[in-house]
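Deviations from the work plan: none for this task. Representative record:
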Amino acid sequence: MSVRDFFIKLSKIDRKYIYLIILIGLIIPLVFPPNFPQKMSPQVKRVFEFIDTLPKGSYVILSADYDPSVAPEVHPMYKAVVKHCILRGIIPIGMTLGVQGAGLAVEAFTEAERVLGARRDTDYVFLGYQAGGAVVILGLGEDIKGVYKTDYFGTKTTEIYALKPVKNYKDIALVISFSGSSIPVTWAVYAYTKYGVKVAAAVTGVSAGDFYPYIQAGQFIGMLAGMKAAAEYEYAVNQILKERNIREKPSTDAIRMMDANSIGQLLIILFIIIGNIGYFLSRRRK
Amino acid sequence: MRHLFEKQIPLALVFIIGIIMTIQYFVPHPTSQNVYDTSLMWSRAISSMAYVMAIISFLRFHTKRLKNKNYAPYSLVAILSFTAMVLIGFIGGTAKDSLFQKIYENMMVPLQATTFSLLAFYMSSAAYRAFRIRGVEATVLMITAFIVIFGTTTIGNYVPKMNEIVEWIMAVPNLASKRGIIIGVGLGVVATSIKIILGIERNWVGG
Amino acid sequence: MHISTDIWIWIQALLTLAIFTFLYKDNPLFRMAEHLFVGLATGYGFVVVYKNAFYPNVWVPLFQEKQLIFIIPFVLGLMYLTSAFPKISYMIRWPMAVLLGIGSGLSIPLTIQTYIIEQSKSSILRPPYPNLIHWINALILFVGVISVLVYFYFSIPHDRPGVKQISKVGLFLLMLGFGASFGYTVMARFSLLVGRLDFLLNKWLGIRPF
Amino acid sequence: MILRVMLLFLFISPPKVFSPDGTGKKLTIVMNIPDTLRTQITTLNLLRECSDGKLDTLNILPFLKTYTDNELDYRKEYRYKILAYSNGNLIYESEWSEYARPTAKWFDKGKLPLFIVMMVFTIIMIFYIAQARANKPLYLRPIAGLEAVNEAIGRATEMGRPIIYINGLTGISDIATIAALNILSHVTKRAGQFETRIVVPCYDPVVYTIAREIVKEAYTTIGRPDLFNPDDVYFATDSQFGYAAHVAARMVREQSATNFFMGYYFAESLILSETGASTGAIQVAGTDSVAQLPFFVVTCDYTLIGEELYAASAYLSREPLLTGTIKAQDLAKLLLVIIMVLLSLLSLFNVNITLGLF
């Protein structure tokens, strides 16, 4: 069988084998994670470096405006950014405009306690859910402790040590809205345009396209989009953990899933190439 | 007489309501606002009862298939699961931790997510089988897909400017083609709505 | 490796595997899962539509708040029941006429504004542009949208001199756009599949990554 | 000490009040509080007195320069007074403003250009429909997709296997579904001549009842009412993926020779078209759902893109009224392109005209 016949045969494999290859191609990296080094793409780098270069003791609002349906892509971002802030001595103020985000955010802060020994109300604050959407965003511009009388756990915000010097957006270095919908745009319109606080978006891959116009208009300082951005950020934070030789193992969901995803996508590229070579050769033979 | 009820009155209804709703957009007066609110209230009420037709067709279709030997077990499963879900929903309630919610989260969501995830397999076989260089269009389609697929992998980050290229493709040429289609579709939607209101488009009353 | 003992996790896993079998070929297990899905979905729809749509929008205002005006939408809605009796099933056209009238009436001005005006407005050249790249992008968008519109122009044959080239550019852009969205969706679909496999491996079989 | 001095600022000029729009519900109050005072204000109240005597106090954000009060009644009049406090003590009190009435207009002038566009388009539509009714020749260029539709029907006849025809996953008011139903009528008539079976699983109950009527009527018009099999035109389910799985499984079971995907689709499109392709069926798709076009273009033998679906339904049903509509849309498109080019050229010489729309 000549090389040409081999390639022609290769371009006519039965559909079922393609599915088998994809299945195996995805299972292997999930069980034996290759942990590819994740080089940061420009948008992610802007957000990462913005936080990395903030002075110790500055404040960042992390709004968990997402729900379980988009958790696989967005939740690892939230966990990574929380850890990143605490590692840099920056105090993340967690909150959410959607009821479903609260449970997920708590999980992220508990992991930070486990891995970094972070202490509630000193190293981080979690204010929980507040109804009202844009009204809440506006209110934070005036008086954060007025909008959130108590935090998620019931402690009076006026008594929280970490919140002592904080009044409104003037004391906040950055707001990041984590969402599967267009809520980050509401943050940009009300928090950035009206109060001038810097805003970044952390969204799903599919919805990333709708945010480009806002980035070009300068309303977002950067964007984390999709599983790829989650893996890049998670990888960078895990590097810092290694430098600090922190033994506790952090979660590597995004990295593992992104590695499997990349292999799957590379397999598709391989199929396109093989399909065409075989097709090309068989056409020339006619 | 029957013609009146079957065709004339529905067409008259669509004409009158259609004209009122079109003009209402241009009238800021509170009465126009009330007309708008009432129309939304009515359409929510009516469409909530349209679902009963889905139930009727579903039950009629599956009860008929019970007679057919090789479909019977499946249609039985469909009817039983339907009845069970309805009883559980109405008796057990649909609260956060109700059995109804548990069934939704542990049966319907995985069924839907898994069917959805089949698309990754189908995309692979479609890319393998159909992405052939057969003419300019197919080639352009394939190369762009190639670039974007590669650009959105981890390795893609290592190719310089790869992310910028993907972003540019999505933000400029892709946007131009989508806008062209949307404008065309917009014209089509307006034309059809006008035809429905003026009674030119009559398929929905049986042509 | 410690397999999960939660019954619900097992149900999820079995249903997931049943759907995956369709990749091999259509089989009774898949058909059972398919019909289970169809039954549950219709039942779920019935309960949710009743509780979230019918009850608050019809039952409460009419029978509890006694707003008699609601008799009209209620009676129109009842007409849908006639679809079960072929002889008088034409009566579903009355509620349909109301919905169609409201839908079409509302859509005309909104569609003109959002689909036609907004999209063409943002494609018009509005110099000055900050830098050369913005200029080029604006030009591509402008020429691109017009050439796609020319492609969808049905009153002149495509082989006329001027029209031929422009609609070729239009078709080129259409294909480029389709390739881009196909490529972009690959990442999203694979994340979904990876999510399902991760559930099976991690939550169900309890295989911790090495 | 400073606060006592501030108390002198009493009974200063009243706020300006006007009706910002024609909704008869809103009044905008312009507060001209001196800037020096602005920084001290902690709470800012607006007193509102209605012509029916009712008095209300509105607490508003202290930094606001203007405030729009809504949910008012256009039949009544209102007047306002500003009260500004610094940590509880009154530091600024304005006089009562004039009584003002929220005006309720019957036409929003801002929307006049849009109204004109709508009227022009309707007139063009009616003109071409009249032309079509008087069956004047209306030229429409040939569309490649149409031969594909007829070829696909021929293929099913040769192989003696059924056609599966899907009308999309949206309701009857969606233009794509209406176009799909028009094409269904043509396909059924043509297939009926060769007694080729056509299976129409439906997603929407309303579309199902109409599709059933269309198939029945198509068979009667070609003199074969006996061919109508009520079991072949049925409502499958209205769950997106239940429907995709059901139709995909049916394609494999029936080994359908030809599959038609007309109408509007969502993410399930690839399950349908890729499974169909795996059975080796000829597939023709037609949709205006931009997100799903790539999948149909890749997996189907021919795809009608966006408006081609609408044009195809006009061709295939040979309905003069539909052709008239396509001509009207074309003229509107031509006008739109001309406007876009003109406005762009003009703005090159920085003459920025917007016609109130662009």
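Chain C touches chain D through 54 residues (CB under 8 Å).
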